[in-house]
Write a structure and sequence with these properties.
Layout lengths: L1 H7 L7 H37 L21 H10 L4 H8 L3 H5 L2 E5 L8 E4 L11 E5 L6 E7 L9 E8 L3 E6 L5 E3 L9 E13 L2 E11 L4 E10 L2 E9 L4 E7 L4 E11 L2 E3 L5 E6 L4 E11 L4 E11 L4 E10 L4 E8 L4 E3 L3 E2 L3 E11 L2 E3 L5 E6 L20 E2 L2 E5 L9 E9 L5 E2 L10 E10 L5 E3 L2 E3 L7 E5 L4 E3 L4 E3 L3 E3 L4 E10 L19 E6 L1 E6 L4 H12 L5 H37 L4
Antiparallel strand pairs: 1-5, 2-4, 2-7, 3-4, 5-6, 6-7, 8-9, 9-12, 10-11, 10-13, 13-14, 13-15, 16-17, 17-20, 17-21, 18-19, 18-22, 22-23, 22-24, 25-26, 27-28, 27-29, 29-36, 30-35, 31-34, 32-36, 33-34, 37-38
Helix pairs in contact: 2-7
Length: 612
Amino acid sequence: MFRRIVSNLAFSPALVGQLGFYARRLRKEEATRRLGLVFTALALVVQSLAVFSPPEAANAASPADFIPGGIDSKQQLLTHYDNNTNRIKGLFTSLGITRGEVANMQAGTIKAAGVPGKYNWSRTSLYSAAQGQRSYTFNNGAGDVTFYYRPLQLTAANPPYKVLTGHSAQFGWFAVMMDCGNLVTSKPPQQVNPEAACQRLTIEQIAPTRFRFTAKASVKDGATIKGYKYDIQKQGQVLDTKNFDSNNLTHSFVYDKQQAGKYNARLYVRTSEGQKTSGECYDSFIVDSKPVAACVEVTASLINRNTVSLSGKARAANGATINKYVFVVKNASGSEVKRITVASGSNHVTADNFTLNPGQYVVTLTVKTSVGDVTDAACAKPFTITPPEVCAYNPTLPPNSPDCQPCPGNPNIWIKDEDCEAAIFSTKSGVNMTNGNVDASTVLARANDKLSYTLTVQNKGLAPKSVTMTENLADVLEYATLIDQAGGSFDEATKTIAWPAILLGPGQKQSRTIAIQLLDKIPATNTGVSNPESYDCKMINTFGNSVNVKVDCDTTKVVVEQVTSELPKTGPTENMIFAGALLAVVVYFYARSRQLGTEVRLIRRNLNTGTI
């Protein structure tokens, strides 16, 4: 329109009126676009605030996080490491991960689903032992602290988590999650337990009635030696005991015995882990003026389920010599099933390994010497080959036995093993009282529903044990309130309920039943960022086993979170590109309006001065 008016103005002065009308429209358009430019600039300011100071999720942190609120960079992680936030430096050190290895970490991503063989760590317990969760306790001189780890694939959500990844020369691959600071490892930790053992006792004759006793022990992972005890026996009766205080790994002393005869000696090592002995810590000696020999001991050891290793000890003195060791194995009916002869003049021999079918056996050792064949009651030992279908943790149990369970603190041993501290079984069940007392995990829990949980502890050990029942309700109380504590004390800060200690005798059990009521309006809080189990429309509660109750969440929450997860992922770069393009378009149209207005003013001035 502007071009048509200007091109015809010289031929038709009447178009001046239209030019004036067009000039007024341009002034209005310029004002409108100026106002649009102002609002666009204000919008970009707000947009920049959102880009450079992005909002945080309302449920961004969790008590399970190593670093509340997570980290944005490797430098932040190092700062928390140096400050030993929540004892993470102590944890890394106990696992063998050094600061230099943390400083060499690189940015990356990891998913949970379909990633077997990796373990996710947390500060609080989120799953049950049956689901694969284990605890890890260390000290580092600042008191005991416990962390928890479980298979990474248990994590419900599966976004590509931002992580820092590294490699430890001692521990292998590891990573740290950016949104929570939690550790991810490629293998479970080695539980460090102090160990001490009695390794060997040897007796050397240095005169007809004098003998040198030499003992050797071993310790590791902090165990210590306190002393040595020697029991000198004859025909099963203890005749003499020698005690020595020492913290050395070896010990020696000279023993005098005038009365002729064969004597046995048993060594006990007193350690910080108790009194230790073994088959190698048993030997004999002979006091006699004439040539004499004796069979000291025979041992049958199982290399695996049905592979047997036999070893024997003998002693000769005053010129007598040892020629051969003859091992004879008989079954329960007394029939010979194996005979092994080892030609040796040594005081200690081991026969070649062999296999046997399941059953009960007795091995007898006869030593052929220069003074004749000798044997002894200590040279006959029974042993058993167990059938193959047995419990993986205790070969005396069938695999389907209720007692066939791993130790909660050490999955490599049986729950009733003397080295396992736990002999208490914890179980839990839940019912929805509002829906006819049905199993709470089988129905959808709705607003105002009442549920009850029954916690049971049973002593399946062989001795009385004091038990303290503690229940963590943090996940449950996101959607409910506690209405019956069953006599327990509730800690509002930790969301736990605890009862006074009870003494359970062997086979005894006790139960506590608590009740909750769902809120009258189910919260629409977003699912946790660092802890995907938080506000996930489920109430997961663990006491030995886990009870998982689905909650009837608002459809809006479910739809919004689903849609949000499907939206394209944009960051500061994409936002700034879009804002720059929008600003350029608005500035272009505003500049165009100003340019047209200027041209109209010039034409009207030329017209008024008679130029046109």
